[in-house]
Structure formats: C-alpha cells, structure tokens
Amino acid sequence: MKYVGQRVSRVDGIKKVTGDLKYVDDIKLPGMLHAAVKRSPYAHANIISIDTSKAEKLPGVRAVIIGKDLPKRAGLYLTDKTFLAIEKVRFYGEGVAAVAAETLEIAQEAIELIEVEYEEIPAVTNAVEGMKPGAPLIHPELENYRIAPVFQIIPGTNVSEHFKLRKGDVDKAFEEADFVFDTEFYVPHIQHAPIENHVAMAKYDKDGTLTVWASCQSPYAVRAALSDAFDVPLHKLRVISPAVGGGFGAKAGTTLEGIVIPLSMRANGRPVKLAYSREEEFTSSYVRQAMHSKFKTGVMNDGRIVAIKNEFVWDGGAFTEYGVNIAKSAGFAAVGPYDIPNIWCDSYCVYTNHPVGGPYRGFGMAEIHFGIEQNLDVIAHKLGIDPVEIRRINAQKPGGTTATGARVDDACSLVQCIEKVAEDIDYFKQPEQPKDSKKVRGKGIASGMKAPSMPTNAASSAIVRINEDGTAYLSVSAQDIGQGSDTVLTQIAAEVLSIPPEKITINTGDTQNTPYEWQTVASRITYSAGNAVIKACEDVKEQLLKLSSIKLGIFERDLKLEDGYVVSKIYPDKKVSIAELALGLNFPDGSAVHGPLIGRGVFIPANILNFDLETGLSDNPVTFWTYGANGVEIEVDTETGHIEVLKVAACWDVGRVVNPTLIEGQIEGAIVQGIGSALFEEIKLDNGKFLNKSFMDYKIPAVGDMPDMKLTFIENPQHDGPFGARAIAEPAMIPSAPAIANALYNALGIRINRMPLTPERVLNALKEKENK
C-alpha cells in the first residue's frame, strides 16, 4: 500500500506547534460574558438556603442561577445528575450556583457574595461500606431514574449497576481444584490531567437556536444529552468542538456545558464562557473510579486455572451516569485474557460522596488487570511455576473461549505477544545488579486485553467531497484528542482515493456540518470511523469509475484509481484526472451526467450481540479484543523505597499498523501513563474533601520518568478492520502497573496490593517482611 503503513506526518502538526490551532478558550465572541461557579465545601450536606441577592446587585453581573433553575436530570446511560446541586450536595466541589459577568474577576467576586447555608450529613466514603444495609442513601430516588436496559440497579441501595457473570460450575470446580487461593487488591481514584482544562461556551439566539462550543470528545453524545436536559430540539442545537487538548475519557460526557447554557438564556442570549481552573479540573470533572477487587482462584498442580470467583466494587462517586458502563465492561473481561472454564463475577458500581467517576483510558481494564495479573503471579510463585509459563498455559488462544463464552478469534496472538516481551526484556536472565548495594533490580511481566465497549447501534459516518482541482475534503465527527485520528483517517482516505494525504483536508467536530459519530471513546475510531471513511471513498470511487467509463469508452472493470487519475488497466496512457470529473460530465448538447462528486459512508459493527442479564453470557458482546503484554525492569532503592522503571518491552497485536510513528507514540504514552498510576498518582481524600488538588501535590510522570522502551507489533489482520487495523490507543496502558508490581516482587519478594507503589509503602512492606 502506498499511504497506509507509512510514517505520514501529523496533518495537524504545523498548526499545533505554531499555535495556529484554535481551542475553545481561544474563541472570543462579541459581548461574551465570563462564568464562575460557587462550589460546595462539603461532601454530603442538605442545602438549607441560598441567598444570591448580593451577587445579583454587584455591578457587571448579568445572570445568576441555582440548581432549582435547571431541575431536569441528565446522563448518557443513567439520568442521575443535575448540573448544579438541588436540595443537597453529594460531593466536595459540586456546583450550587453560577454567575455570568462582564469579567472573570467580577464573576469570581460575585460567587463569594452568594450565601449558602448547609446542614452537613453523614457521607459515604468507602464503596464497600456504601453497599451495606443502613448506609446513607446518596440517591434515594434511584429507582425512578431512566436507565439503559443493559444495566441493573438494586433499588433501595447505593448500587447503580450490578453486572453478573455466571459461567460453568464454580463450586464444583473449587472442590476438584488442587489449590485455592484468595487475594485482594485496591486501586485509588486518579485524575485524567489533560493539558487543556475543560472549557465551554454557549450562545442562545432569539429564535431558539443554541450553539455550544465545548472541549469535548463526543460532540454528538453531548448534543443528545443537552437536548434532553434542556428540551432543545436537535435541529436547534449545534455543538462545536474545534480542537481538544487531551481527554483520556475526562471529556467524553457533559460537565460544564450544562452551566453555561442557562446562563446564556438568562443573559438575554449573550455568549457565556466557563473555563475550569486546574483545581476545578481535579474536583469537578471526571476522575478514574477507585475499585476494590477480590479473587478466589482454583488451580490444578500443573498451573491450569479451573475456577475464579471475583468481585469488583467500583467507587462510582456522586453520580454514575457514565460509571455504570465501566462496571459492566469490566465484567466482560472478568478474568483478563485467560481461558477459564468456570467463572463467577459480581461487578458493582456504587454511589459514594466522592468525585464523579467516569471513563478513563482503558475503561476499567487497567483497574481489574492490576489484580488479575498480580493474582496470577502470586499463584505462579506459590506453585513454583514461572510467571511466563503460567500465562502460556492459561492464555486465550484461537478457538478457545472468553469469559462470556464467546469463541476466541483466530486473530488472537496473545501467546506470541507474551513470548516476544519475555525475549525483549530478557526475562529469563537475572538483571545485572547495580554496584550500589542498597539498590536492587527486578523484572516483571503482565498481559492485557481490551475491547471497544459500544452498543449494537454505535454508528460512524463520513463524507468525502472531491474539489475541482483534484483535492478532497473529508468530513467526520471523530475527535482527534491527541491520538492522531485525523492523520490516520486521512491516510485511509488517501489509500482508497489514490491521492496524497497532503491533498486531503479533514474537517471534524461540528454537529451542524460534520456527519454523525457515536462517541470518540473505547479505542474505536480507527476501526469504526476508518471503515466509514473507506465506504465514503468507495462511494466516490464508484462514481469516478462510472464517469470515466463514459468519457474514455472503457468498461468500469478495466479502470483503476492511480495518483489522482482514473487509468485504464490495459492501456495506461488512457486516463482522466479526478479534477476533470469533480463536477461531473457536461456534453455539447447541454446534457450532464452526475453532479459534484460526494461520497457517503456509514459503518456499524455487525457482530455485537446482547448478553443475558442474569448470566452475563453472550456469543459476542464486543466486536473484537486487542491482546498484548508488557514487561519491565525496575530498580528499587531499599533505603528510600524509590522505584525507577529502567526498561519496558511491549508487544501488541494491532491487526495492521496504519502509521508507525503514531502507534509508537500511542504505546509510549500509554506506558508512561501506566507508570504514573503505578508509582505516583492517587487522589487523596479526607471525608470526601480533596487534599491534593494541584500539580504541586499530585505528581504525574515527567520526562525524567521515561524508561528505555522496545516496542514490537504483531500484524494479524482484523477481518473487518480498515485494512485489517485493530484498536491500540488504550490497551498498552493496561499491563503497565501490574508488570511493575510483579517486578517489585521479583526484586525484593514483597507484594503491595494497592496502587500507587509509593516509597512509603515499599519501605513498610520491607519492614513487614523483616518482621516475619
């Protein structure tokens, strides 16, 4: 292929490095007002009264709203949230009132003048405790909320989703097992920390037209949620996302959009902008859910796992409108990339008075694999089986079964990935120990899997227009949030149309002018939007061949696209440029054939099947799985407890590499993000109150934390992927943390069952080991 598989430069690269790319906060409209939000100082409290009179009288204030002004609940999967608190607050930092003013300074002064009287009430600060009878109910009206039919609430409790997986006969398998092991793990909340904070602006016109500019990953999903929440018909609601400076899931749903809309309505239609501070980014946008996991594992002498009974308890936070889907998706991969005949899994999403839990890179997979992959190492060491070998024994292989009972696709190359990583990290060779006797090195390995989590009707669409000079416009609503999708989709279009990528301009993120896209989540864009682009280009190609057949007098079957021309396969000198055909054909008698060339493409995965709500079983609840493995070498300072990741090897079956540079960047970024969650990142809460809501106290990886990396790919084409491509943007993060934890055990013989592996926890574990 000419363009697919090549290191094509990012199509948005020049604009990004020169600053020409405009983000929402760069947009300044005439008459624009600035918004600020009054936030709760409590995690759980009744609102006794709100007095906004002083704020309303402040010169320069143009609108003030409170929760009762926008009472309708919103949510993508479960309609449980309001954009401002009504009657009570459910998490620290929840908005209770908002102001629009002529300047940001005036707006901030105004919110200080708003007087709120609270009655603090007991908070739920632990998801496991929140499930118990008698726990304070955070949403007593839960059973009245609208919810998608694939989720199951437990009325009268804090459980907003209970996913059940029942495969085989677990009790019998435990009785027959040679060994039974019990382990527990915990993953804390972490923050997405995108470079660009959340920003939104709304303008409500006199004719009822509402335009929202938002730094969001999924303009059409945001449009649907806002349309429902504010009763604005879709043809009157336009969502524009000009550019997104990172998301990782934090910008997948609605957040501050629901605040600027009513402010604009109250301010006589003037545009209103709200930009989160970094502190608000921590407290008031999505966080990755915390999660408690338990594993009971039945194993035979030879290392075969015959049964697993596990429990995942997700700390969904104050609203779980998106979080319920994470609990469900985690259940589909309940035992990771292993073929286990007997499985019992309960995955619960639980309300707490913590920040709102939402989608985060990996969509639950990194959280559950932290336990799955360590649990496997615990078993391997206790049985005296090498950790690589126990993975070979239990790995999903072509023709086997997944946790839900689906057949494992012939494209599964997990064993090859594990073996390649072991080779690249030189796993079976003891690491060379440093000269400093206080430092010890160790190696660890972990596998991972992830599927695009999407419903049966998750559509992608694309439109291609050929210009009169032979260039093209490609329109999609898939958002490039840094992963490089604009470039990949352009390469795919270039390959089908046989014109250089530099002759194609891609347009995205405008629900009025770009076609429908379900969501930019789940590592699905290359797969779904890529297929839509192929279909749109094939539509144009068919039109070009028909026109050329007429003009050249050659059968369509004997024509092909080549370097901007339609060329005869038999007589290469007979050709016509696509530029000449862009507007159709006109004949001397005044007649014409076709009009401007426009191609349309729609793609909906054909093989997603619903699952049984009582057993969780399905022949194919997801369209495909991406498999791979990471291996690491670390160095631990036994005096300070500091862990340094020295080397990482990663091997993933990506189906087909569309752009080597971009896929390498995705995996490198995923590995480093995984290192952050493994070693540094943890939101610290005290009775629901944030203690580390800035980068002064919350560390993310920096350039000095980058290890040496060796990346390899297996190209086992996905049968229905665009040119065989499969997802990779999220999966490579999944095994990073457990591989580091396993390397720590390899180095020092200590097992830390919770993230992050901080120096303090390392030193405490060493002391416990010495005492034993």
UniProtKB/TrEMBL annotation:
UniProt KW keywords: Molybdenum, Oxidoreductase
UniProt KW Oxidoreductase keyword: yes
Protein name: Xanthine dehydrogenase, molybdenum binding subunit apoprotein
InterPro entries: Ald_Oxase/Xan_DH_a/b, Ald_Oxase/Xan_DH_a/b_sf, Ald_Oxase/xanthine_DH-like, AldOxase/xan_DH_MoCoBD1, AldOxase/xan_DH_MoCoBD2, AldOxase/xan_DH_Mopterin-bd_sf
Gene3D superfamilies, per database record: Aldehyde oxidase/xanthine dehydrogenase, a/b hammerhead, Aldehyde oxidase/xanthine dehydrogenase, molybdopterin binding domain
Region (Disordered): 433-453
Domain spans labelled Aldehyde oxidase/xanthine dehydrogenase a/b hammerhead: 18-122
GO MF term set: iron ion binding; oxidoreductase activity
